[in-house]
Each structure stands twice: as structure tokens, then as C-alpha cells.
Amino acid sequence: MDMQPIPAREGNHNMKDYKEVYEQFQWDSVKSQFSWSETGKVNIAYEAIDRHADNPDKKDQTALIYSAPNREEKLTFEDLKFKSNQFANVLKKYNVNKGDRVFLFMHRSPEFYAAFLGILKTGAIAGPLFEAFMEQAVRDRLEDSEASMLVTTPELLDRVPVDELPNLKQIVIVGDVPENGDYIDYYKEMDQASKDFDIEWVDLEDGMLLHYTSGSTGKPKGVYHVHNAMLQHYQTGKWVLDLKEDDTYWCTADPGWVTGTSYGIFAPWLNGVTNVIRGGRFSPDDWYGTLDKYNVTVWYSAPTAFRKLVSAGEEVASKHDLSSLRHVLSVGEPLNPEVITWGTKALNLRIHDTWWMTETGGMMICNYPAMDIRPGSMGKPFPGTEAAIVDNDGNELPPNRMGNLALKKGWPSMMRAVWKNPGKYESYFLGDWYVSGDSAYMDEDGYFWFQGRLDDVINTSGERVGPFEVESKLIEHEAVAEAGVIGKPDPERGEIIKAFITLNDGYEESDELLEDIRQFVKKGLSAHAAPREIEIKDTIPKTRSGKIMRRLLKSWELGLPTGDTSTLEE
Ligand code: WTA
């Protein structure tokens, strides 16, 4: 679908002219606004919360509106300062130190945000885990990070293989504490803890966050972020989210994924805005209701959610007053031009696509309020970052040539390491270029257009899934001999997970067996990683060195030419 550009709207935007800003911008100008630019010592939780709580004009502003089906709560910046201080004191009481990994495995709640910020205040590294993870997924992440403490709820505790995690010394329970075991009671400890805390001042390059994410090989990797990322969170919040102090902002992402931390925690609070956090499941009525009830002005969501709203129809939308909204953005998957068209009708607004990754820590290629949108394009590089399309040797390609989407390394929120895996970290770089794994091209006017993943990573409803993790789980099932997993294009979910398997002797294909295998992955990893389709084959194509040829599986599935199969095993 070819669509006309959608012109920028008139308005008092934080960034008036992209080109001019792009040419002049220096990160140092952001730094100099913060007091730590003098001392060099910083703490991102202080900058996000305490800086506002210590300002008499700001301290009583609502920082967090928590809204779930059976709970609603508002916390001011001062409330959040005190609660996170209390949690930091609890951590100190139990000997958590700078650099320790403290993981969180729970649903979104005020308790989660107090704990997350409290962890950062001690200088420890926070590791938020998506609440839908099952045992294997939880184990892999806690094992690799060697987390010494976990904050979780009684409901999720049986997915934590406590006895098999020697580094995990302490578990904080948010809720009814089980009697059989040595647990720390969140509410009891918080009640007793002081509201004053001496923040651990750290260096800009000290670690603050680990997000596990999938590649095409191996288990999920710990992407390591440092306090310096705050520069990018703050400035993209200003220029891309266009946040102003009286905004009410809602980011729909879970903090188990990077969007839910960079843009569900840091960007809004660094910019001092009221942040809506919605618990519970997606439903079109509740989502429109949330926009309406809290008069949300800036909304950051994902194509998969927008597509569901499109299919829910106009009638649901028309029941709600959405007139408070002034700015809408999207991330995670290609934003279909059809969805942009829906936005201009249903919301009377443009939807601004943004492109970035767990590894980039913050937005990299974006559509800005003051810029014309070309529907289907991810936009242009954020000021202070350089993007290009490069070939496999790292040479820049001219406009309209497809290649690797790459970024000149060194932006503030770039990952600083892959946890305990320096080889993997280095494999991302070609000379000075960080190579994203996405293919794209740039048009003559500098707009970037996403084309696809270059590796086998699957993007299902905006969630990144590594085929290896799913294959490994599949072959643990007693009936499965071999497995190859691919992403299959799907109009609503972007891609769905499709598994090809071979069966062990003595097993016959049946609907029950396939369902059992599906449930096995779902119970072991998580619902979003369970294959929606499973097909039984006589063999799984492999290279002579034993690597599964997922590309060939995909070509078969899509009825495409199979290309070079010279490395195929006999
Ligand atoms: C994909 C999420 C098309 C891409 C913040 C990237 C996108 C991966 C877009 C990162 C977009 C993200 N258009 N594709 N606007 N944004 N992606 O690490 O393939 O969960 O490499 O980070 O999502 O996913 P991740």
C-alpha cells in the first residue's frame, strides 16, 4: 500500500526542527542540565524520582497512577521516594551491595516500582522478569545472572526452582509468606524500614539493569545497561515522546521487556510526568477506558495492540472520550500503514513509529512530531546517533540499497556488555558499527524502511523469541526426537511460532499428542513461546555440521525457492 506522507501537525513541540537539531546536537548539552555533571557521580533512581520529590513544587504531583481491575492507587513523587528508600533499606539489611543482581519476578504493581527503584538506589543491578515466564525461563535467567536475591509473589514462587539455584540466597515475598521456608516478608519489612536512605552514588558507567533477550543461537543473553543510559531516556522522552511536565503518559509495555523500563519508568519520570501503569490483561474496552479515565495525553504502545483495537471496531472506540490524547507512538514490530490510517480516523492523530532494540537501550530511529511521516517508514535517526545501511564488511551503502541496519557505536544507552559473554558482545560489531540484525534501506531523504530480520529471531506480537530456546524445550518432550522452529507470517501477530518436529519411535501423530507438546512448551517456557502450529516431519533438514536449516524450513512453509542447499546433510 503506497500512502502519501502525513504532514507534521502545528503545535508547541519540544523539538521544532529535526534537521537543525540533528546537525547541532551534542550529548554534553544534556549532561550539563544535571547536577552530577559536576561530580560525575550519579544514580538514575535519584534523577528519576528524588530530584522531583525534593522540589517543593513537584513533590505532590502524582508520579504513578496504578490501575488494575480490582485496585487503583496513586503515588506522588514523594511517596515513591520514600517507598523506594524503604526498600533500599530492606536490601541493605539483608546485605545487598553495589553490583549484586536482584531480580524481580512479579506483575506490575506499586510494590514492583518501589522495589525496582530501591534496587537501583543501592547500586545493585535490577533484573525484571516477565510474569508469564515458566520454570525453565526463570531458571535460565537466574542461573546466568547469578542473582543473589529475588522479589516475587506467592503465586509465582512455584516456578522458581529455589533448590537448584545455589547463588540465590534470599527471596522477598510480596504477599502471604509461605510457612515452610526462609522468606523475607515485603510488607512487614517495609513497615519497619526507615524512609531515609543514603543513596549509593555510582559512576555513569556502573551497571543498573539486565534484560534477557533472544538471539538465533543459544539461550537468552543478559543485555547489560549502565546509569549513563539516562541521558538517552531523558532526551528521547523530550523529543520523541514530546513529554511536558503536565502530561499524563501511558506506556503499555511490561517492565520485563526493555520498553517497559526505558519508557515505562525512566523516560517519563526523568521528565517529571504522571505515569499511568495498567495491570491486567488487554481488552479494547479497558484500554480505551484507561485513556479516557485518566485523560492520557501521550500514549506509547505496539502494533499488535493497535491491530487488536482496529479489529474491535469503531463502536468500542466511540463509547470513550479520547480527546485528551495529543501524541501516539509505536514500537516493537513494523507499523502497518493500515494502522496509521486507522489512527488518523479513530484517534484523529498520527501514530509515530519508533525503532530500537533491547541492546540499544533507547530509541534510535524515530518519527518526530515536527516531521512529516512516510507511512511504513521507521523515521530518521535520533540526534546524536548515526545510522546507516552497511554491507557485510561494514561499508556504507547508498540510498535505496537493502543491507544491515547499523548504528555508529557510542550512544549513551548502548548496552555495555552481554553478561559473562564477551564474545557474543563483540559479535555485534563491525568496526565502529553496531550491526542490529535487521535489514532495511534508507531512501534519498534519509527515511529508514524496515525489511525484516537477518537472523532467525522470531517477533510474535512484538515479543522476541529465540528459536533455539523453543527447540531445546521441544526435544525435552518424550515424544520429540528433533525440532526446528521458525516464525510464520501472520496478519494479526506479525509472526506466529511454527515448529517442525520428528517423533521418537513408538509415537504416532494425533491431535492429543500435538496439544500435549504445545502445553509442555507453554508450561516450561511461557505462553508466548509455545508454537501455535506443530508439523510432524520424517526428518529435520540440517547442515553437515548439524545446524538446523531453519531458512529451508521457512522456504518450505512459504512455498519459496529453497536457494543454496549445498551444505545440506545427506
Ligand atoms: C523489531 C524492542 C520494525 C526489530 C524495543 C528489532 C521493529 C527488534 C521496530 C527488537 C519497528 C522494533 N519496526 N521492527 N519500529 N521496533 N522492531 O529487543 O526486529 O524486544 O531488532 O526491543 O524488534 O526487539 P526488542
UniProtKB/TrEMBL annotation:
It is an enzyme of class 6 (ligase). Residues 469-547 form the AMP-binding enzyme C-terminal domain. Keywords: Acetylation, ATP-binding, Ligase, Nucleotide-binding. Residues 58-416 form the AMP-dependent synthetase/ligase domain. Gene3D superfamilies: 3.30.300.30, N-terminal domain of ligase-like. Its EC number is 6.2.1.1. InterPro entries: AMP-bd_C, AMP-bd_C_sf, AMP-binding_CS, AMP-dep_synth/lig_dom, ANL_N_sf. It comes from Thalassobacillus devorans. PANTHER family: ACETYL-COENZYME A SYNTHETASE (PTHR24095), ACETYL-COENZYME A SYNTHETASE 1 (PTHR24095:SF14). This is acetate--CoA ligase.
